[in-house]
Amino acid sequence: MASVVIGNKSAVLSVVVEAELLVYPLRHSGVELLDLIQALITHPSITIVDVDRQIARYAASVRANYNLTLMDSIVVSTAVLSECDVLVGNDKACAQRVTEIPYIYLEEAVKA
Q: Would you say 63 and 46 are in contact if contact means Cβ atoms under 8 Å apart?
C-alpha cells in the first residue's frame, strides 16, 4: 500500500510491504534498485507500520472473512487501522474481496 509522493500526500506501508519491496533487488543483486527502494521507504512522507497485536487480531478477522493470505490480511489491516483513504495494490483477489477500504487495483488503473 502506497501512494505517489506529491506535495503534501503521504503513504503508509506495512512492514510486510517493506519486506516484499526488498526481495527482488536482494535476489538479483540490484544495488541501484535497492538504493532507490531504500530512498523511497525512508522518505519523510512514508510511514512504515510494524505489526502489533491490534493489527494481528484484525488481520485474523480479515483472513477468516475473505480467505486472503496472512500477509495480504496484514496489509489490509494496516491500511484500515491506519485510517488510510485507499489501499493500492496489485492483488486481484484482495481487490475483489475487501470491502473495509477502497482498493485501487493497479492492473486495472494502468489500463484506464
A: no
**16: Cβ contacts below 8 Å, ≥ 6 apart:** 51, 71, 74, 75, 78
- Amino acid 31 reads V
Whether 20 and 41 have beta carbons less than 8 Å apart is answered as no
Architecture of domain 11-111: 3-Layer(aba) Sandwich (3.40)
Amino acid at 32: E
Terminal CA-CA length for the chain = 19
pLDDT confidence of residue 2: 41
User: Can you read off the three cell numbers belonging to residue 102?
Assistant: 477502497
pLDDT tens for residues 58-78?
999 999 999 999 999 999 999
